[in-house]
Amino acid sequence: MTLKDNTMKKTLLLLILVTAAFFAKAQTTEEYIEEYADIAQDLSEEHHIPASIILGVAIHESAAGKSKIARHLKNHFGFKGKNSNTEIRSAYRDFPTVDSSYNHFITFLKSRNHFNTLFDKHDQYDFKAWARGIQRGGYAHSRTWASQVIALINKYELYQYDNRPEDYIEPVEPKPVYRPKKKNSRTYTVKQGDNLSIIAKRNKTTVKALISKNGLKSNALKPGQKLKL
Predict the structure, then answer these.
(1) Is 90 exceeded by the pLDDT of residue 3?
(2) Max CA distance (Å), the chain
């Protein structure tokens, strides 16, 4: 075995050991919840926002503490900004502690017009309304962001950390209103010299469609006659 081969073998072995060590230390989602449930509940009690929302967003944005920005920057909520970290290059800001990242989440919501109205509009137990309100405010670009956070809250039963009163009744979600599509009511008034072929081409349709829509029995047209398009 050459010196080069031996060096490569040692490098590969080291890489395997480092990777194995990382995954051995990686938290499960349940362990993450156990570690950060207390700070979520403290913030919930102080600011009247569901603890389940705080935990759900943190789990979603940080992959339960396993994402690069969570591990290297202690950023558990996906906040962008400058950082002084030399281990990774990132457009996300860093925090001195994970707790400070949690506190910044509340500060961020309260300091933005799109979000601060949620504190008056929703109680500290209605996590579904909060998730949808945060999404509408533009927290994330994904259209399914709120649904994903709500799914995490339900999967890990994070609502148990909201300390809901025993007589609390969860708001009933309004059913989507069905609005039938309006029928195309465009019409065309026949002019001197028109025929079905000219009208069809001008209005991006076919002679067959015009005959069918208007119940025509012949191709003969009269000026002033109205046709459904």
Answers:
(1) no
(2) 96
